[in-house]
Design goal:
single chain; about 180 residues; alpha+beta; five-stranded mixed barrel; two-stranded antiparallel sheet; 4 helices; 7 strands; disordered C terminus
């Protein structure tokens, strides 16, 4: 009877590495998201929680992707400057309106909110509208989809140059 030697840590690591290389070569990556876009999903906004979060008629909370709006007061946090204006702007745009969602990846955040791009009935990207109006800042720390990136960056730059919304409260530096 043949005896097997106990594997060394290096041997285990080399085996795992070899398997991962083989899977990658075969284009089989465990747990990797597919490149297929998320299907568009119709929904109705019941109410707006703040400048980047809404609640749908089915009770789901949705966090808009690509933007970061000032936070309203909640728990032990105080209200951030321009939070009320940002929330009111989004409320006027979306309250009780039909929208289209395209979920992000991941589809849910650590708070249980659906992460999605929201589009108006006329097909406008709500995140881009919020940036152009200066109601939010660009949130690109997690990457932006190529199909939206240019429009989002242009909208954010426009708001800063025209000093719209939250950018109206920042001082210009003197030469």
């Amino acid at each position: 009877m043949r005896h097997w030697r106990k594997p060394t840590p290096f041997g285990i690591a080399a085996t795992i590495f070899g398997l991962l290389v083989a899977l990658r070569f075969l284009n089989i990556t465990p747990g990797a998201p597919t490149d297929a876009p998320s299907p568009a999903e119709p929904a109705t906004v019941r109410f707006v929680l703040d400048g980047d979060t809404v609640e749908l008629s089915d009770g789901r909370r949705v966090r808009l992707l690509g933007i970061d709006a000032p936070e309203m007061a909640h728990h032990d946090q105080s209200e951030q400057p321009f939070a009320r204006e940002s929330t009111q702007w989004l409320d006027q745009l979306l309250q009780n309106r039909k929208v289209t969602l395209i979920k992000g990846r991941p589809a849910v955040d650590r708070y249980g909110r659906t992460l999605a791009w929201i589009f108006t009935e006329s097909g406008e990207n709500v995140s881009e509208l919020a940036l152009r109006s200066g109601m939010a800042r660009l949130l690109d720390a997690f990457g932006l989809p190529p199909e939206y990136e240019s429009g989002l960056r242009q909208a954010a730059a426009y708001a800063q140059v025209t000093r719209s919304g939250l950018w109206s409260r920042t001082r210009r530096s003197r030469p």
